[in-house]
């Protein structure tokens, strides 16, 4: 199946044929104190508001409004959350929606599952998370429950500084810097991210590749553990990992625990991530020997009248809240690229009162 607005890699056309019936969108939410490091993330208009990013994203996607605070989640440059894209797709399609707290400081005012109880620590401590196995086991049960109600799953994430923790677990498992993770910032703070990760690895005493559980415990985040458990529990249905380099890291982690050949799994992200010259999405998968289909939603806001949306075309934000993956899934079911772009424009115009 080939649809305009989607690019296909690694046999993704065949996987696309499995996206039938009514799917479910699952948003994994979490916090890591790594996000408080100055310059590490664009999530949140200020550091003290960064922990609000996941609950606000969930509220926006589910209700079209921000309930916990009064404003749409923005970057410091006032660029809107990619959750705006996800919300647009939700209004155009019939996805069931589920929200999963993997370890957050602030809960959203929408119904949600809870599989973790605490945010991740700053990975510079080398002791990011102590309850990885517990999160995985609880998330397995949630994944099985959601899968029983779904023909397929689209799994997205909202966790600030998640590309830094993704780099952390990849290096902990033996990857090199060649597979650099992306960034929500226009200029990827590669040197800062690498120095943060290397400090964490040193504190953790990691000098040789370690197993995925220890990697997450040392320099990962709760979203990763939640994703692994959810996928393990939902293995009987097709799964789209809706994200860029963070979800690529999840795929690598998962591949060190189980044989992915037993899963119907693909990764789908935005074209902005795939074209990001400061990152290497396909390199991450290749280094991890992860052979899964990849699709990109080739959205464009070049026609927008809003600077906040035009910024996406200049390399800001790029992905998050499952935006690319849910767009791909919707387009496979008949929603057009232009419908998504126009709906994003309409929703944003209402939010900013123009």
Q: Explain this structure to me?
A:
The protein has 354 residues and is an alpha/beta fold. The chain has one domain (6-351): Nicotinate-nucleotide-dimethylbenzimidazole phosphoribosyltransferase (CobT), large domain (Rossmann fold, 3-Layer(aba) Sandwich). 39% of the residues lie in helices and 12% in strands. The chain is built from 14 helices and eight strands. The chain has helices spanning 12-16, 53-63, 83-92, 132-147, 162-172, 190-204, 212-219, 222-233, 245-255, 271-274, 281-287, 307-310, 323-332, 337-351; strands at 6-9, 24-30, 96-103, 113-114, 153-158, 239-242, 265-270, 294-297. It has an eight-stranded mixed sheet. Helix 9 links the parallel strand 6 and strand 7 (265-270). The longest helix has 16 residues, at 132-147. The termini are far apart.
Label this structure with key terms:
39% helix; Rossmann fold; Nict_dMeBzImd_PRibTrfase; single chain; Nict_dMeBzImd_PRibTrfase_sf; nicotinate-nucleotide-dimethylbenzimidazole phosphoribosyltransferase activity; alpha/beta; eight-stranded mixed beta sheet; globular; UPF0284 protein LRC238; 354 residues
């Amino acid at each position: 199946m080939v649809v305009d607005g989607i690019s296909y890699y690694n046999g993704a056309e065949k996987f696309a044929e499995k996206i039938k019936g009514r799917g479910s969108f699952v948003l994994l939410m979490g916090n890591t104190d790594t996000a408080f490091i100055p310059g590490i993330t664009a999530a949140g208009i200020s550091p003290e508001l960064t922990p609000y990013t996941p609950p606000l994203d969930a509220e926006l996607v589910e209700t079209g409004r921000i309930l916990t605070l009064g404003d749409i989640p923005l970057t410091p440059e006032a660029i809107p959350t990619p959750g705006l894209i996800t919300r647009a797709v939700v209004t155009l399609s019939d996805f069931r929606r589920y929200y999963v707290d993997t370890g957050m400081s602030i809960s959203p005012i929408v119904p949600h599952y809870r599989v973790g109880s605490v945010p991740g620590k700053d990975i510079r401590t080398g002791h990011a998370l102590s309850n990885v196995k517990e999160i995985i086991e609880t998330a397995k049960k949630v994944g099985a429950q959601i899968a029983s109600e779904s023909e397929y799953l689209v799994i997205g994430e909202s966790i600030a500084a998640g590309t830094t923790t993704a780099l952390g677990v990849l290096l902990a498992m033996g990857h090199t810097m060649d597979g650099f993770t992306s960034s929500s910032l226009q200029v990827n703070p590669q040197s800062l991210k690498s120095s943060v990760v290397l400090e964490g690895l040193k504190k953790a005493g990691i000098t040789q590749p370690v197993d995925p559980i220890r990697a997450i415990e040392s320099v990962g985040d709760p979203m990763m553990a939640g994703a692994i458990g959810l996928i393990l529990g939902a293995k009987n249905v097709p799964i789209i990992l809706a994200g860029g380099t963070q979800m690529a890291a999840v795929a690598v982690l998962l591949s060190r625990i189980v044989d992915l050949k037993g899963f119907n799994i693909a990764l789908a992200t935005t074209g902005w991530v795939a074209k990001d010259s400061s990152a290497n999405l396909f390199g991450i998968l290749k280094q991890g020997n992860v052979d899964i289909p990849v699709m990109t939603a080739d959205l464009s806001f070049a026609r927008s009248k809003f600077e906040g949306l035009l910024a996406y075309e200049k390399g800001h934000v790029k992905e998050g809240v499952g935006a690319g993956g849910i767009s791909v899934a919707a387009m496979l079911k008949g929603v057009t690229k232009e419908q998504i772009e126009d709906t994003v424009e309409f929703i944003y115009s209402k939010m900013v009162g123009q």
